[in-house]
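Collaborator request, handled under Task 6.
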Amino acid sequence: MNTGDRPQVVAHRGASAQYAENTRAAFLHAIAEGADAVEVDVHLSADRQLVCAHNFTVDKTSDGSGEIAEMSLNALRALDVHSWKNPELPEGYGSSAQQLITLPELLDIVIGADRGVDIALEMKHPSAFGHELDDAVLDLLTTRGWDPKDSSIRDTSSGEAITVTLMSFSPAALEHVLVRFPQLPPRHLCALFQRGQMEALYLVDDGRVGVAGPSQAYVRHHRWKVRRWLRHGIELNVWTVDEPEDVRYVVEVGARRITTNRPGAVRRLLESAEFSGAGTL
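Structure tokens returned to the collaborator:
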């Protein structure tokens, strides 16, 4: 997506400051607030359905308990996955029973949006199903017309194209994607890491992955590393950035993608007259 001079605003699990993360309401609100892209976490259910959820269990984000990998999609849909955050669902954001969302449903929402909205898709590992999760994601994208040469999916009715960024903390998952689709440009692969969880970092240093996805804390403690990446053409996607002073900091560092729980507020700040714009340390 072309956002001009400002960084791309990526909605972290949707607009998750307002609505429960990875729910229909969170994604729809992110789009309504002007997010340039939505970020989503994906697991496989027991019946091999691609479910949008961050945690490996439903204990903290629903009225139930158990591991997603051991529950069917129907069992997951029977849970209340939104009231813990915000029980109020505006008209048009779906009913309570529609808040648990699958990746195919999210693709329908994103592709069908009235403007271009990209998607940053994290494959959650370690998965109980290993690379079956990665293959399920790649197979779904392929059936939806995904072109790995530019990682795009085009809406056949409108002609609007969205770009898919594939992400993981797992280097094995990213390498599996590259084995299946060696033509996928590095700029559409993002290695996620934070201090103490840096297994995928070598893929950025080797240039096999073109987007570094560090936590904000990692960036603050490794500015020399960030400068080296930028010199070598690596793009910087920093998470999770919500406060104005943190937005200013990561933009000054050189971030071109800002992952935030508050996409509307961050976009307004980036487009405000008072915002100084991007620079480099």
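The cover message to the collaborator said: "The beta strands are 8-12, 37-44, 50-52, 118-123, 152-154, 161-168, 189-193, 211-214, 235-238, 257-260. Residues 277-281 have pLDDT under 50 and may be disordered. Please let us know whether this matches your experimental observations."
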